[in-house]
Amino acid sequence: MFECPHCHERGIGFLQKLFMGSTNPARCKRCGRRVAISQLSVILLIPTYVMMFFLFKVDDSWLRILLLGLLIVVFFYIHLKYSKLIPI
Ligand SMILES: [Zn+2]
């Protein structure tokens, strides 16, 4: 669970944050108020988008699948660990 910026309780679930963006907020399970990801946090994920572009240039399909899996793990790790929750 992640801390809500409104009530400072752990009211934001793992899956809620995983699928939350700057334009699709979620509700805190404790206070019911809406929370979103900071737009500045989206900038943190730009390197993974750039790496995704270069992934299509890899010829070996197994290597491409392996790198895609790794990239998805890195993307979710950065998103869950460093994306800042903001009150809306
Ligand atoms: Zn809350």
Explained architecture:
- It is a single chain.
- Helix 3 packs antiparallel against helix 4.
- The strands form two sheets. This protein has a three-stranded antiparallel β-sheet with strand order 3-4-5. Strands 1-2 form a two-stranded antiparallel sheet.
- The relative contact order is 0.21.
- It has one domain.
- With about 90 residues, the protein is of the alpha+beta class.
- The mean pLDDT is about 90.
- It is about 50% helix and about 15% strand.
List the helices and strands and how they pair.
Layout: E1 2-3, E2 10-12, H1 14-18, E3 26-27, E4 34-37, H2 39-44, H3 46-55, H4 61-82, E5 85-87
Antiparallel strand pairs: 1-2, 3-4, 4-5
Helix pairs in contact: 3-4
Zinc ion binds next to loops.
Outline of this structure?
This protein has 4 helices and 5 strands, in the order ββαββαααβ. The protein has helices at 14-18, 39-44, 46-55, 61-82, and strands spanning 2-3, 10-12, 26-27, 34-37, 85-87.
Assign an overall shape.
Answer: elongated
Q: What does the largest sheet look like?
A: 3 strands, antiparallel
Tally of DSSP helical segments:
4
Q: What level of helicity do the residues show?
A: 40-55%
- Tally of DSSP β-strands: 5
Strand content bin: 15-25%
Count of structural domains: 1
The kinds of small molecule bound in this structure are:
zinc ion
Low-confidence stretches: none
Sequence of strands across the biggest β-sheet? 3-4-5
* Separation, N- and C-terminal Cα atoms: 19 Å
Structural class: alpha+beta
* Radius of gyration based on Cα positions: 15 Å
Listing every helix as H and every strand as E from the N terminus to the C terminus, the arrangement reads EEHEEHHHE
Name the average pLDDT. 89
